[in-house]
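Quick check before the chapter quiz. The format below is the same one you will see on the exam, so make sure you can read both the input and the output lines.
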Amino acid sequence: MNANERVVHVVDDDAAIRDSLSFLLASADFEARVYESALAFLDQVGDLAPGCIVTDVRMPGMSGLELVVKLKEIGVTHPVIVLTGHADVALAVEAMKAGVVDFIEKPFDDETLLAAIKTALVRGQDDASRQAERAEVEERIGHLSAREREVFEAIVTGESNKSAALKLGISPRTVEIYRANVMEKMGAKALSDLVRMALQRERS
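Here is the expected output.
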């Protein structure tokens, strides 16, 4: 999917800013959806189109940083760009620690913001792809029996059939049988496939 086909969600309590950003984004061929507050945005989270989020940092009710923390808690992975008219180093650090991908001071240069949005959309697309891959791996693991999962965990950490057998209290031949079952259920053709899947699970 092209980055420009994804939605820029604008969260700002200032109507003039919302109108200005909507015009800017439309002129750059982005689809914009605007929200007058963090709470209004959260009301729509269950039906949120793919894309990125641009939010003011200081808003009544819930700040932009509080919104970022809340989104992380509920599992929304859209990249977030924070806008502020009160930029300082401490706030920038706090924003970055909270997980925002960029921090831009008002008044901002249009091209700077558009470049940040394009970068965020590409990142969001990559994140969504990785998230889908992780979900598929987790689904396959969910089909493993408890013993098969133990064998899976053992072999992806480099255990040989013999050492896995000693660790699990079963015979090497039994480990081979479980290993074959794991390979089939996980859709793996080689040990390297299983290791890659294990690494996908660990990536945040």
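If your answer matched, good. DSSP finds nine helices and five strands in the chain.
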